[in-house]
Specification:
The protein has 335 residues and is an alpha/beta fold. The protein is built from 14 helices and 11 strands. The strands form 3 sheets. A 7-stranded mixed β-sheet has the order 5-2-1-6-7-11-10, with helices on both faces. A hairpin with a 2-residue loop joins β10 and β11.
Length: 335
Amino acid sequence: MGERLIVVVGYAAAELLDIACVTTGLAAANGIGEPAVPYRVRVAGPGGGAIRCGSGLSLASDEALERVTGPLDTLVVSGGTGVEGAAADPRLVAHVRRLARESRRVASVCTGAGVLAAAGLLDGRRATTHWRYAPLLAARHPQITVDPAPIYTRDGNVYTAAGITSALDLTLAFIEEDHGPDLAREVARHLVVYLQRPGNQAQMSLFTSAPPPRDALVRALVDHIAAHPDHDLGTPALAARAGVTPRHLTRLFTEHLGRSPGRYVREVRTETAAQLLASTTLTMPAVAARSGFGSAESLRQAFTERYGIPPSRYRAAMRPRAATGTARLTGRPEV
């Protein structure tokens, strides 16, 4: 019986969750599905010694990175606070480059994209990484199209995942790609994961990604917008509510939120629609009305612009199946 050899690369101050999400997810696939071609997962680090993770815990390597040889099914490079040192280590980068040539599939999790970038494996490709690290990655490697929004991306045989627990989403996508959606769904249930998120679901939400604005006027309007997305939220109406001119309101929103009032309202309405699609059985016109869009077509246009998929497909992916209570999975990662 053959095996799918998966090598997960760690290094000093790697993120333990980046590694564990992959190893645990694949081990669960072996135990639950007993696939005809099971996974054999190895953790490799420079020198083969213990990997002192960023959390302070130590993880034993299965073997030295220098001694790993192909062919491999999948090479996964973890992220972590130690990525700067890892990406600057010519020997580690050279071994990642070498093993990538001998791998069917190459992937990174979180800031591990920095190591793939240093190895030249992301040149000319679209890639994602942790949203905090994305601007730095883009600045250092202009030859890469860095997209900070998705949970994970695929460009050819190279996959990149966003922050930390997105490693689990990526692992479920691998399982689905290798063994079909039924096994991926069973692994998700076993791990008590509510659902497998689409790769192009946004990493960050307006409702959680930033602290409330420091400006009291902007903060009050933000609260009003979130509570009443179906109200008249045009810039003139918001300005009148705040007792300022539309021009001054636009300046305040740009200064404190980094976007115009109109753009902010559109994003809030789209995220409200996403929540309704995932948690209710409202019809599409009803979702559009409750989230403040004038029509289902307006909702579709705004939703596709933000998430890259139409609302109907998002609902199919995000809502559990009523008959079984299990999560519906997305299609394969976008090529």
